[in-house]
Amino acid sequence: MVKQFRPPLGCYTLEFPAGLIDKGETAEVAALRELKEETGYKGEVVGVTPVTCLDPGLSNCTTQTVLVNINGDDMENIHPTQQLEFVDVILLPLDEFQTKIDDLLKKEKIMVDAKVYVFAMGMVQAFFKPRELPVLKQFFHKAVYLKQVATCYFQLFMSLISRCSDSVFSNCSFLI
Question: Model confidence over 35-82: pLDDT tens digits?
Fold first, then answer.
């Protein structure tokens, strides 16, 4: 996670690493570059979503989500050096992701990116709620296995790449 000041909101935000897509770059290449610049970590792309809309009721902005694994044992990732001074790297444990975000919200004047908080809520549902619903018990064992695999790596789950062509963001491409 990264914490950075966002002038339009007038406060710090908690976000997934993101940034501009350079001309000729793919979503995957841009996500890895931005991850390295903002956090110092080197990652490996393990998934990319199709282009999806951000807020179709208000704009025509679209996004792609890039799933990246970060191997904490890689020499480059043991003591990562970020390239941006105005971004703070925040490491949160996966099994307490939403709880730790809620703690930050209580301690600091900070705004959480909606994509981050929805992801956190999804983590809670995926890993803890299946035990409570009989119809989902069959999937619980698979979820436990996936949780164990996920915790083997520090993961950056999303870098979000957006392209907007409405009047406000005419012909721009950027990560959110």
Answer: 999 999 999 999 999 989 988 999 998 888 899 999 999 999 999 988
Amino acid at 122: G
Residue 106 near residue 20, CB atoms below 8 Å: no
- 91/70 Cα distance (integer angstroms): 12
- The whole-model pTM stands at 0.71
For 32-66, letters b (16+ CB in 10 Å) and e give bbbbbebbbbbbebeebeeeeebeeeebebbbbbb
Q: How many CA atoms lie less than 13 Å away from 71 in the CB half-sphere? A: 7
Burial 85-123 (b: 16+ CB within 10 A, else e): eebbeeebebeebbebbeebeeeeebbbbebbbebbeeb
